[in-house]
Structures are given as C-alpha cells and as structure tokens.
Amino acid sequence: MSDLLDRRLALLDQPAHRAVLARRLHGIERESLRVDPQGHLAMTPHPAALGAALTHPSITTDYSEALIELITGTHASHESLLGELHDIHRFVYGQLDGELLWSQSMPCGLPPEKDIPIAWFGTSNIGMLKHVYRRGLAYRYGKAMQCIAGIHFNFSFSEELWPLLAEAGEPAGISDKDRQSARYVGLIRNFNRYSWLLMYLFGASPALAVDFLQGRPHRLEQLDEQTLYLPHATSLRMSDLGYQNKAQAGLKPCYNDLSTYVARLYEAVSTPWPEYEKIGTVRDGEWVQLNTNVLQIENEYYSSIRPKRVARSGERPLRALAERGVQYVEVRCMDIDPFLPVGMDETTSRFLDAFLLYCTLQESPLFGDGGHCRLSANNFLTVVKQGRQPGLTLNREGSEIGLRAWAGELLDRIAACADLLDRVHGETGYAASVAAQRAKVEAPELTPSARVLEALRDSGMTFQAFMLETSRRHAEHFRAQPCAGEELARFRALAEQSLAEQRELERVQTGDFGEFVAAYQAGLLGK
Questions:
Q1: Closest Cα partner for 242 from 302, 307, 305, 152?
Q2: Comparing C-alpha atoms, which of 69, 105, 67, 109 is closest to residue 202?
Q3: Furthest-apart CA pair in the chain: how many Å?
Q4: Element (H, E) at 401
Q5: Most CB contacts within 10 A, which of 143, 315, 347, 490?
Q6: Could you tell me which residue ranges the Glutamate--cysteine ligase domain spans (predicted)?
Q7: Whole-Å CA distances, 370 to 325, 382, 398
C-alpha cells in the first residue's frame, strides 16, 4: 500500500474527520427498455400516468420512447438509496398496463431501425431540442445502439473533505473550487486506470440477440440460432461493438486538469464534422440534428465516467462545469445485473463507494505522453471482451501482469478503504462487499457475466427467451407489493405536477425553433 494512501486513511480515521467522510452522497439513474408481454420493444407512448418525461424529477426517458430512466435523489445511506429506487419501480409497474421492464443492458429483440421510436418530449422549444438531438444520434450512431441500457452511479464527497487532503506542493493560493475540481479529476484518472476491475466484477452482458446487430459485421460467436456471445466477455455493452464513430474516435479529452478537458469538449461542440455537414440540420422543412459539429451537445460524448456539476435553469452543463467546477462524478459503465430486481444491490453500491474512495485517496499521477491513458483504455477493452479468459494478462505501466494478481493487489487496498468506511458507519457491510468481489476473482464462474452464460446454457433458452422470463419474474416481484396510500398519492401528485409543468412550457415557449437552438449554442460559448 502506498505511503500516501496510508497517511490519508489515517487522517480520515481521526474521530473529528470521520463525520466529514460520512457525508458522502450517492444517486442512481437506472435505464430500462419497456417491452410488451411477449418481449418485443414497446411501441406505445411513455405512459401518461407516469407523468411528463420532460419535467418529471424521477421518471423520464433516454433515447427511445421505450427507454425509461428512473432517477433517485441523493442519499448518504445505501439502504435508503436502493429503497427509493425500489419504490420508483413499484410505482412504475403499477402504471405499465401489462408491459415489462427489460432486465438486461443489451436490448430485447428490436424491430427494424426505422421502426424504433425516438423519445418525444412535447412541442416546447426545450422539448423539441431534446427530440431533435436524439434524431441526430440516430443518423450518427444508429437507433439500435441507443437502446442499450445501463446504471449510472452518481457520487460526491462533502466539500469539507478537500482541505483535509491538501498536500505540500499544491499551487500557492489555490481556491477551494479549484482544489475540489483537481481532486475529482484525480479520482477520474485513477478510475480510468482501474475501472477494468469493475467490468470484470460486475459486467453482465456477455451475450445479445442476433437482430441487435441489424446485419452489421461482427466477430461474435454463435451460442444458438438467435444468440451471439463471446465466451470470456464480461460486458459487450461497453465493448467497441457500440458507437463506431470516427468523429468521437479522435476525441480523447485530457483528464490531467479540468480546463483542458472543458476546452476539448468546447472544441468538439463547436467544430463541424464533414460527414455531419453532408447530413445537414434541416431536411424537407424538418430538423434532423441540432448542428453538424463533432458533438451536437456535450452529453453526446460517451465515456465511462464524467465530471459533473448541477446546472442552473437554462444553463448548459459544460458551462456550469467550467464556471463553478466539479461537484460530483457520474460512473456510467455499470451493467444492469439481470438477476436483481432493480439491477443493482447494496453489496455492489457499497463496493463502488469503497472503490471510488480508493481512487480518491490513492496517488494519481498525471497522464503523460507515453501512452498511459491509451494503456488504460486498452486494459478496459481487453477485460470487457476477454475478462474471464484463464491466464489473462493486462498492461500495468508498460509491464505485463496477470489480471488475478493485479485484482488481488487492488482489492487489498480497496479493503483498507472499506474497513475505514465500516468504522465510520459502525457496520461490516463494506468489508463484506470486498470479500464478495475477492470470491469472484478466485472463482470467475461467480461473476455476473459467467452466470448469464451458464443460465443460458442450462436453460437451453435463447438470450431473448431467458431475459423475457427473468423480466417477468421481476415484474411479479414488484406487482406483488404495489404502491398504496400516501406513497401512491405522492407519486401521482409528482406525475400530475410534471404534466402541468410541460403544458406551461408549451404555452410560454413559442417562437422560432432555429433561433432557440442558436441561443442555446450561444449560451455555451458566452457570446
């Protein structure tokens, strides 16, 4: 264990500092496709009983009209975090009228691309902006790729933590805002170094339905007539199957400092890309994308973790980040665990907590010009496609090391962070979460990806049939304990309020949509 990690753990273990560490916050965004009772993509509109996807704080849609997104508030406790997510699911299932939520990150059998419905957010300018952005994604990446689902884990520390971790050698007079941003960016660098471990431990998408690829070439193997897979894959969702895009391929924002990262994304949302210029923005009087730039908006940049800042009303997220610094991080690489009703459990969220604490406290050298950032990306891609391969080796700072050996070293260090969290909270759940991951390293058959393949083989079912059965089981779980009483009334009130807010936006947001888009872009660039 590094001296710096030891020192920081000892510092935070002091009674006066444990309370600061205890004030971490967590939130979850869980995506899931709505499917009909036969497991086909739901072609119905977002149910009105759930409220307006544009304005509801907890229930919205992502790319497709059928790709529902359930969002918790922030919680200090993992029990309350997963409890809220469970409650949102209970309410949603009460309004789905026989439809199901797909229990896998990789989609159900999809209709032809042209028939996949894009999310609709109403006729207000901001609603149309969201819809047209998604039209642009369809042209740039294809609709099927946008139907992949995952779990995003939002994480922040108390702002009181950063002064405690101040080290000799920091720039003189550094502001609290800049120190906080620098520490979060350091966390992100370490996350990129070590996130291959998360894919090994929690990847749960080693297989997919044949029609997902819609005839595109691939190097997957045939498990049965309707199922493709890779025998040692952990997460095809996070592999290079998705988002084959030359424009983004050249966009590798630097995580050495926030200003460089922001500058690269500013450039991407402001620089035209020839292939997108050929598409244009308006065809036959209809908007098909917001602009012809490398990225239409900053959210189009796909990454396994993002620095984030809550934006003010009408403010671009990137501008908020540039002006007020990093407030939290969003972990975006977690697959839905198909064996769990809400796709994640407290063991996983506790381990993520300890992992992110380790990424924060461990020394985080800058990425130099020697390809260290590329090595980290290659390790990640190796694990998502071959992670359970016996004897697999990765590249650690230019030297080969076995995955099992490196995972064991990392888990030793993460265990020290977990032990501190257990002392902070007076429990043993964090240490238990690390022990559960050690077992997966010793026995790869315990990983979710291995369990998925074993279940497919043992059942003799196709990917589509097995995941439909799993989705039905989860539906029964939630429908056996429906929302009622005050809880149901609260969710119904939120739904009605969101519908009223959308109606009001549509009443007051009038005027030329092109001018609205131009003003939105100008708001980013500060013109």
A1: 302
A2: 105
A3: 67
A4: strand 399-402
A5: 143
A6: 10-371
A7: 28, 20, 10
Residue 424's nearest CA partner among 20, 124, 7 is 20
| CB distance 277 to 119 below 8 Å | no
Taking the C-alpha atoms of residue 517 and residue 505, their distance in angstroms, rounded to an integer, is 16
| First-residue to last-residue Cα distance in the chain | 49
**CA-based Rg of the chain, rounded to a whole angstrom?**
23
Q: CATH number of the domain at 499, please.
A: 3.30.590.20
Contacts of 519 (CB under 8 A, 6+ apart): none
CA torsion angle 427 410 446 433 (round to 10): 10
Q: Give the span between the Cα atoms of 413 and 420, in whole angstroms.
A: 11
Encoded amino acid at 415, one letter: A
Note down the domain range covering 104: 3-525
Q: b/e map of 308-335 (b: 16 or more CB within 10 Å)? A: bbeeeeeebbbbbbbeebbbbbbbbbbb
Q: Are 32 and 68 in contact (CB under 8 A)?
A: yes
Helix axes 258-268, 317-324, angle to 10 degrees: 150
Question: What is the tally of structural domains in the chain?
Answer: 1
pTM value is: 0.96
Each of the 527 residues of the chain gets a pLDDT tens digit; together they read 579 999 999 999 999 999 999 999 999 999 999 999 999 999 999 999 999 999 999 999 999 999 999 999 999 999 999 999 999 999 999 999 999 999 999 999 999 999 999 999 999 999 999 999 999 999 999 999 999 999 999 999 999 999 999 875 676 678 889 999 999 999 999 999 999 999 999 999 999 999 898 888 889 999 999 999 999 999 999 998 755 566 777 777 778 899 999 999 999 999 999 999 999 999 999 999 999 999 999 999 989 999 999 988 778 899 999 999 999 999 999 999 999 999 999 999 999 999 999 999 999 999 886 567 889 999 999 999 999 999 999 999 889 999 999 999 999 999 999 999 999 999 999 999 999 999 999 999 999 999 999 999 999 999 999 999 999 999 999 999 999 999 999 999 999 999 999 999 999 987 899 999 999 888 765 43
- 6 vs 16: CA distance, rounded Å: 18
Query: CA–CA separation, 368 vs 130, rounded Å?
Result: 37
**Packed helices 125-141 and 485-508: angle between N→C axes, nearest 10 degrees:** 90
Residue 296 corresponds to which tokens in the numbers above? 């239409």
